[in-house]
Amino acid sequence: MSGTFDLASTEAEDALRLVRQTTGRRFSTGLVLGSGLGALADMVENRIEIPFTDLPGFPASGVSGHAGTLIAGDLSGLPVVLYSGRSHFYEQEDASVMRRPIALMKALGCETLVLTNSAGSLHPEMGPGSAMLITDHINFSGSNPLFREPTDRRFVGLTEAYDKNLRDLFDEIAKREAITLHHGVYMWFSGPSFETPAEINMARIVGADAVGMSTVPEAILARFFDMRVVAVSAITNLAAGMTGQELSHDETKENAPKAADKLKKLIAGVLEELAKT
Fold first, then answer.
1. 5 lies in some domain
2. Domain presence at residue 211
3. How many domains, in total, are found in the chain?
4. 50-98: per-residue pLDDT in tens?
C-alpha cells in the first residue's frame, strides 16, 4: 500500500499531488493532535502548512480547538506529517471520516502513527493535566471505520493495536524526563454529548480507564494500512459523576494545555530515539 493512495479517485490523487509538490519530500511518521493540543504543532521545524480546505476530499473539522491543518516538516530529526485537528464520527455520521487523511500519510511514506487526544479520567489519582499511554481500547460507538470496505482486508487484527515497542519507548522517555505516565484502556464513545454517570460506571466495570470521542477510528485505519500505532491521552477532566460538576468542551480546551508540555517532551523524546534507528 505504500506506493498507492487508498480510495483512488481524482480528489485523492489531487490531494496527494498537492502535498508532494508543496513539500518535495517523503515522510516517516504521522501525528494527529486532539482538542486543545494544537500547541504541539509548534515543535515542527521547516514547516509547511496546508489547510484541510485546500486538500481535495479532506473532511473539514468544525470543532473549536481543532485547527484543521496539515503541517509537514521536521520534528526531533524525523520528517513528519502532522494533522493539527481531526474530523470526528459525530460530525459526519461516518466512522471512516479520517480514512483519506490516514491513507494520505501512508502514501507519503509514514510507517508510524502517533495519536493524541483529550480524554476524561475514571480515576481520581489521574486528574486533569495527567498523561495516559493507551495500552488498548474498547469500541463502544457501535460503528467501525471499515464498514463498507469490500475486501477481506477489513478483517484487521487488533490483538496488539498499540505497538509494544513504541509503548516501551514512551515509558523510557517518561522515566528519563521524570514524567508520570499513566497506562490505561481508552473507551471510545460516539459523542458529541458527554457520557452519563451511569455510562461511566459501566465503563469502569468493563475495564476502561479513560473515555473520549476519537482516536479508535484512526488506530483501526492505521492498522488497516499496516502502520505502527502509539497513542497518548491528555487528561482534561474527571468523568461524569465523579466531581458533581457538569462537563463542558470549554473545560477540555482549558485543561488540555496543562498536559501539553508533558506530551511535547514525550513525543519529542520518542521521535528523537526513532531518528537514531
1. no
2. yes
3. 1
4. 999 999 888 876 555 556 899 999 999 999 999 998 999 999 899 999 9
CA 22, 265, 133, 198: dihedral to nearest 10 degrees? -90
Model's pTM, two decimal places? 0.93
Place of cell 506506493: 3
Q: Show the beta-strand stretches assigned E in the chain.
A: 29-33, 45-51, 69-75, 78-84, 112-121, 131-139, 181-188, 210-212, 228-238
For the chain, what is the total number of helices (H) and then of strands (E)?
Answer: 7, 9
Q: Does residue 112 fall inside a structural domain?
A: yes
Task: Return the CATH number at 233.
Answer: 3.40.50.1580
List the domain range (segments joined by +) for residue 217. Answer: 10-275
CA-nearest of 257, 262, 228 to 30 is 228
